[in-house]
Amino acid sequence: MKTHLPSAPLSYRDGRFAPSQRELADEVPVAISYNGSTYAVLMATPADLEDLGVGFSLSEGIAGTRQDIETVEVVEVEKGLDVQIRLADDAADKLADRRRAIAGPVGCGLCGIESLDAAMRDLEPVTSEARLRAEKVQDAVRAMSRAQALNLRTRSVHAAGFYHPENGLVAIREDVGRHNALDKLIGALSRSDADLSSGAVVMTSRLSIELIQKTAAARCGILIAVSAPTALAVAEADKANITLVACARDDGFELFTHPHRIIGRTLQDVA
Questions:
Q1: Among 84, 130, 170, 192, which residue is least crowded by beta carbons within 10 Å?
Q2: Residue 271 has what pLDDT?
Q3: Active-site residue among 108, 111, 220, 247?
Q4: Is 246 strand, coil or helix?
């Protein structure tokens, strides 16, 4: 399926309407299914969906490791796409127990979160020892901007990238949903056996608690974003031992939690 489609809106410029052209990012319903049963439905960009399935499984704790996922197949269905995942027996049994423990109907079929406890799950502190020089934060943001092929065409999708201190931007995934973009990135890196604890996740969006949770599940210790975080995201990043860098632009950034991973001049150095 196509990730973008042509459109012909009327453009209003200099006091008059005129025909114009624009490419629009596409989004389709994407079901995530485990062993034949649908678990969640997401609105997503129809690309890198195998990565999305793997990343979603890992970041939501459905699969403990990549080895818990036996196969991933994307199937086109009448109203969208179905990412059909076959779990190993132990992981499938744990998912079945998890579903039986739900009291009453699932509250949110669009996000895969079954309860308040799941939405506010405890995070295991990240032990990553990766470090970035301050100027590398800005380099990461510039590299992301250049690498967003779909966003350069449509101006309407988010991206998640992985930046390594020595190798630069080594992977990027785009999607209309910021959570989907991060899941795609986690899935892609997991499928290539990359170590996310060795670098930083870079996001083009604001930072909410879900992105903190997914970064913690990926065992990455540095999360960088071009926009601001929510208060809850900062609190959770602090508890998860994640270095949270936000409002990252060419002229600087703001450092909210665990600053020891960012190497630069301190206030004492400047004084």
A1: 192
A2: 34
A3: 108
A4: strand
Q: How far is CA 84 from CA 52, 62, 64, 214, in A?
A: 11, 14, 18, 21
The CATH 3.40.140.10 portion of the chain extends over 132-270
Interatomic CA distance for residues 83 and 167, integer angstroms: 32
Query: Do residues 143 and 161 touch, judged by C-beta distance below 8 A?
Result: yes
| Residues 189-193: contacts with CB under 8 Å, at least 24 apart | 189/162, 189/218, 190/54, 190/55, 190/58, 190/66, 191/50, 191/51, 191/54, 191/66, 193/66
CATH fold of 132-270 reads: Cytidine Deaminase; domain 2 (3.40.140)
Instruction: Examine the pLDDT at 183 and tell me if it is beyond 90.
Output: yes
Q: Which residue has the tokens 């020089």?
A: 133
Give 151: exposed, middle or buried? Use CB within 10 Å, 0-12, 13-18, 19+: middle
Residues of the chain with CATH 3.10.20.10: 28-119
> At 101, is the secondary structure helix, strand, or coil?
coil
CATH topology of domain 28-119: Ubiquitin-like (UB roll) (3.10.20)
Summarize pLDDT for 97-137 with one digit per residue, the tens: 877 664 443 433 335 455 556 667 789 999 999 999 999 99
SS3 content of the chain, % helix, strand, coil (to 5): 35, 35, 35
pLDDT in tens, 12-35: 999 999 999 999 999 999 999 999
108 catalytic, yes or no? yes
